[in-house]
Each structure stands twice: as C-alpha cells, then as structure tokens.
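Hey team,

Filing this mostly as a record. A colleague (T.K.) asked me to run one chain through the structure pipeline before their review meeting, and I want the input and output archived in the tracker in case anyone asks later how it was produced. No errors, nothing strange. Just documentation.

Input sequence:
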Amino acid sequence: MVEFVTAVYLSLMFISIYMVSFFIILTTRNRKRLFAYPKPNSIYSVTVIVPAYNEEDSIKETIENVFASNYPKNKLQVIAVNDGSVDNTKKIIKDLLKKYKNLKLLDKKNTGKADSINQAIKIAKGELVAVTDADSFPSKESLKKLTGYFDNPLMAAVTSFVSVRNKEGNLYGKVQALEYMIMGWNRKLLDFIDSVYVTNGPLSLYRKKFVLGVGGFDPKSITEDIDITWNLLAHGYKTGMCLDARVSTVVPTSFKKWFRQRVRWGIGGIQALKKYKKKFLRKGMFGRFVMPFVLLSIVLSIAGFAFSSYIVGKSIAARILTIGYSIASDISLFHTQDLNLIPSVMIFYFIVLFFTSSIYYRYVLTKTKFYDKLTLGRFLNLAFYMLVFLAFYPIIWYGTLYRYYKKDFAW
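Output structure:
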C-alpha cells in the first residue's frame, strides 16, 4: 500500500511539474512575441454584439466603451440584444439609440445567450462579428489589435486578454484577478501551438461566414464560448489570442455566485468533451493536444484532490487514535524519536513545484504589469492563490460532476 501511495503521489507531482515546465518553455521560446500582433492589410467591417439579460447596471457603460474605441466608425456596427430583460435594460438601450446612429436594438423573448448571438449574427452587417458581455468593457485599441489576425484566411476566432475590474476590497476579486492574469497568459502561450480552445465571453472576434458555416452558437451548451471554439477547431479552422487586446470584466464577489459560475464552466467543458469525442486523438492539434490536455487537467485536478484528502484524512485519523490510546494508557503524547527532520521525497517535489510555480507566476504578473513591485501583501495574495485557492479549486469538479449527473444545466 505504501508503494502504491508513493507511486500515485510521484505521478501527480511529475505531471504537475511537467505542465509548469511546459508553459515555462513556451514562455522562454516566445518571449519576444508575446505582446506582438499582426497589423491588418485592410479595414474589416465589424459588428459588435452585446447580449444582455437584466444588465441595467452595466449595459450603458459597455456600449459607450465599444463606441469609444478607435476603430473607424464607418466600419463599426453595434447590436445590443435585449434577451427578455425585466429590468430597465431595454429602456437604457433605446435611450442610447438617439446618441449612436450605428447602434441597433434587437428585442426578443428570453431564449438564452447563444440564441441571442445567433439572431444578431443573421442581421449583422460586418464581415467580422465581435461578442462582448454586457458587463465587460473593451479598451480603445482592442478591436484594431484583433482584426489583423484575420488576414490569415483560415482564422476563425481571436480572443482578448481579460482583466478583473472589481478586484479591490474583496478577497474573491483579488484572487480572481490573479487567476485571470495567469489564465490569459497561458492562453496566449497555447496560441503559439495553435491550441487556443476558449474564445472568452468578455470580448472575442469571429469570422461571420465561418460561424454560420458550422451552425452558429449551440443553445444547448451551457458555455457557448467553449463550444463555438471547439466547433471551429473541429472543422479545421484556426483560433488565436491577442495578449495586448485588453478587456475588463466584473467577476462574482460572493462564494455562492463564484461557485455556480465555475461549476457552469466545468459542465461546459464536459459537454464539449462528450460532443466532440470522435475527434479525440484524430484531428490535428485539436484532437491530439487540446482534448487530451483538457481531459488530463480535469482528471489530474480530481485525482490530486482526492489523493491529498485521503492522505490528510488518514494522517488525522491516525493521530486521533494515537492520542486516544496515549491518554487511556497514560503514555506521553510526544516522543523525540518521532521527530523526523529528514525531508521526504514527497516534500522535496512539493517544494520544487512551489518555487518553480512562484517564479513563473511572478514573471507573468510582472510582464502583464499586474504588479509594479512585489510587496509583502502582494506576496501573501500570491501565496494564498497557490496554496489555498488552487488546492481547494478541485472541489468545483465534484459539484460539476454532481450537477452533470443530475442533468442540472441551468445557469
């Protein structure tokens, strides 16, 4: 049993260190190209779609941010989709129609985000269509920096670099701000090996004819942005990511909302793996890398947490039984010979993983200008992210599996 436990632990540690090393190698090899982006050979017509359901608090600022971009106004159209809102979303959009002549309101019954996007694409004038959430705020240069990728005739979708707007004053916001920075960076690294597998909701740009050609966004998927990306990759198209095209978004600041959001993401990932299972190990980088990479990440997360829980639980149970026996037998609870100052192989690999990840994350946060300097408070935030947030994140997958088994796919 000891040998089996050691083998499992070493396997998990090896895979974890391998994955960190993989991203470090990609970073090193492409460090001079990380923030580069292709300049477009022509000015594409772009339609920005803003699906909204009960977004009265942010819809106005989102639309104003889009129109404040430096993209040529004669090439820009915005379609705001009111998806059956019961608040003042529709009224706010109607008021903005007086201010922006290139703004169009699509008013419909509540049928979900994917259907909202599909209906808007059908009436979009642009050769390219961007989708931005109603609580997200693209920077002025983002659209321009994304369009150059479409000079490649096989490029179907390009996504942006998302930062957290509401990161101050709340632990959930601070931790997610770190997570979004690192997640965005890693997504850019996957761009260098043609493996961007999520075009995020806050801001992504698509070639309209390709999206229509693969059947549009899937209303049955709980995460339409994951599904459309996998659909495009499965058809042999390319996806990309621009690290210098930024968009800020609002993240959940309570455990309940955050947990529900992440479970939804997890369900979407499982749905995608099931839907495109026939492509597994068969379709270029999509089938031979993306799908195994996603599946391995899920399995590693679940197995690692289960194994760690078993080890910790077993240790606690043994200690409780030992204490109970010692008290009953009037024996000393502590013996100096029990003190082991020689670090085990397990601890050694854990230290290697921790310090390697720390150096890597520190580099990412510096290059993305998330931190200008590393203060004690910021170091503690990073340590909390690595030792607590990432350690307990796998709990999400247990909630995901439960809801998936119950077929609870509600938002």
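Quick notes for T.K.: Strands lie at 46-52, 76-83, 103-108, 128-131, 136-138, 155-164, 204-207, 238-249. The radius of gyration is 24 Å.
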